[in-house]
Amino acid sequence: MLLSLGLDRAVFGGVKARVSFREAAIRSAFFVCVGLGFALYVRFRENTNAAVTYLLAYVVEESLSVDNLFVFLVLFTYFRVTEAQQQRVLVWGVLGAIVMRAVFIFLGGALLHRFHFMTWVFGGFLLFTGAKLLVRKEEEVDPEDNVALRLARRYLRTTKETHGDHFFVVKGGTRYATPLFLVLVVVEFTDLLFAVDSVPAVLAISNDLFVVYTSNIMAILGLRALYFVLSGMMSRFHYLGTGLAVVLILIGAKMVATPFVHVSSLQSLVAIGLVLGVAVGASFLRGKENDA
User: Is this model's pTM higher than 0.85 or not?
Assistant: First the structure.
């Protein structure tokens, strides 16, 4: 994981004023190849079933991550964050997500190991979340309503103006948080809420914490590049939310039914792949109809 980040920085360099679509696509493809290629290591480390399970968890996490990028886009647009600043925020956001996922996954794994009934609790939560996502109406995301933003403004000394890519500045011997730091706070808080859905989803797929954590991290590593690939295309994913809702419902149902019905990782991978494929395909077909 650290090697892939280091290689990305060595080849493409650090933060830039602007990331072209071509470069973002190449970076995103690189991290997808690393993520998928890691399945080979899992295969040799454990077995074929573990590798298939890893791929399933990776696809689910990567797909759910796309929904999270919509919130980031609204947030960056609202605060007029430049592309260079977005890159800096996303770098720290990814690092924070790696730490938070470790905590969530190992706590969730410990609960499932110690209390068997948590399987139904997690499964029921995924069914509820998926059903809620399925029937929700499209709403505008208002960053000002974010709890983390309100708390940060209340308890931190902040400046009204940005100071380049700095999170903090010192004025008159006093340290102030810049608006860019507030953006980072909201990004981390958003990922924290996102982890509440995604971690139970991957724990429903496997109880192998190595598979669960590595699939999560491999998906997160490419999130920064994926954002710049999709930032201009997000309005076209009309049915992605519906597809993700169905995925959560399928995973929740699998978790609840585990004691009674066995569904293999390969069967789950095929089913989820079909759902996401139909959602994305239908979204692009609708986009072409609107363009005609």
Answer: no
